[in-house]
Amino acid sequence: MSNLLICPSCGKECEKLIRSLCPACFSAKYDLFEMPLVFHVRVCPECGAFYHKNKWEDGENIEEIIMMLSREVLLINTDIDNVSVGMQPVARTPYIYDLYVDVDGTIEGVPVYKDGKTEVRIKREACDMCSRKAGGYFEAVIQIRGTNRQPSKEELSECRKLTSATLEQLDRKGDKLAFVSDIVELKEGTDYYIGSTNAARQLCRRIIDLYGGTVSESYTLAGMKDGKEAYRTTFAMRLPEFKKGDVIYYDGKVIEIRNCARRITGICLADGSGFFEESDVMKNVIRLGNVDEDAMDAVLISEEGNAVQVLDPVTFETVTIRKPMVFNALPGSEIKVFRSEYGLFALRSRPQNGPAY
User: Fold this and answer.
1) In a domain, 297, yes or no
2) N or C: the chain end with fewer CB closer than 10 Å?
3) 298 and 316 in one domain?
4) Which helix (H) or strand (E) covers residue 73, if one does?
5) Which residues are CB-neighbours of 169 under 8 A, at least 6 positions away?
């Protein structure tokens, strides 16, 4: 005698019925899952962010975004146990995807399966952050200036690189307002319009770590936001009065500055000794010039011990001066010297095609 059961709907024999139906008829009559025939996904064409639960979130792969959002609108029959869901988005156009869905599991110990398809429509629109960026939004302005001088091209170039790297790092950490809305180059320096006050403040700290100097803050009422007064911050940055390569007269010594940040380091041109001093305690400093801009050529006559004899490029007199620690010139050749009211000083040799003094 057969133990098979007959499905009253289709007449097929099966080992077990589900609510008096075979698995095939049960799957046809009862929905194993439900999904909208069409649903929309909002994606920013600029940064790839997608709109989710009333806010924009970071995203990169459009297919992963579709599957994540699809799982949230997929309703699976609560009677199914051991559920397994498969999804495969297939692009019909850049703006329309067909999403194939299959669900299998068990009901009352009987395997069940159903598949289906829904249409996903991609709506490209700028996210809040990209809209602000495109609209020139900014919360802060950084004004980079020099103290009693104009910033050098090298300093401004390094500041621009540091700005890009710092804001990129802050953006990865979650500050989506860490962007530059505008850069205005002026004769006296550069102004950066920054989307986030916090990002601007951190950028100022990094510039000071690199070059030293000071920064002051001032505030301007920009309007109302959420019923409260909104202010824009201006960061007035002042780079140190001196920069790398400057020659200064300080505390009775002629110093060539090698590094200029929170601490100024250099070398005494008279005896070759090192120089270290906190920049904020240096007073009554006289700038004599810069080794890149004001160095002169002088003919080397002879070299003996720690001294060299050169022909003064102005008076044409033979002068004996201290030999720099790095020195590889031969008699008859020209060397670089720095001339000031405090004496004539030989500058260290540099490699061929090397950087400026």
Assistant:
1) yes
2) N
3) yes
4) helix 62-73
5) none
Do residue 227 and residue 313 come from a single domain? no
| Residues lower than pLDDT 70 in the chain | 1-2, 19, 29, 350-357
Give the Cα separation of 8 and 12 in Å (integer): 8
- What one-letter code names the amino acid at 41? V
For 149-173, give one letter per residue: b (16+ CB within 10 A) or e.
Answer: eebbeebbeebbebbeebbeebbee
Per residue in 132-167, pLDDT (tens digit) is 888 889 999 999 999 888 898 888 999 999 999 999
Q: Can you tell me whether residue 63 is helix, strand or coil?
A: helix
Report whether 260 contacts 282 (CB < 8 A).
Answer: no
For 270-310, the DSSP string reads: TT--EEEEEGGG--S-EEEEEHHHH-EEEEEEEEETTEEEE
Print the domain residue range for 285. 246-346
Residues 307-337 have pLDDT tens digits of 999 999 999 999 999 988 888 888 989 999 9
Instruction: State which of 127, 147, 179 marks the end of a domain.
Output: 127
Backbone torsions φ then ψ of 154, nearest 5 degrees? -65, -45
Amino acid 354: pLDDT: 45
Q: What are phi and psi of 324, to 5 degrees?
A: -65, 160
Contact (CB, 8 A) for 141 and 234: yes
Angle at 346 between CA 342 and CA 349, to 5 degrees: 150
Domain count, the chain: 4
Looking at the fold, whether 308 and 252 belong to one and the same domain comes out as: yes
CA 56 to chain CA centroid, nearest Å: 20
Q: Are residues 233 and 160 in the same domain?
A: yes
113 and 179 share one domain: no
The rounded distance, in Å, linking the Cα atoms of 242 and 245 is 9
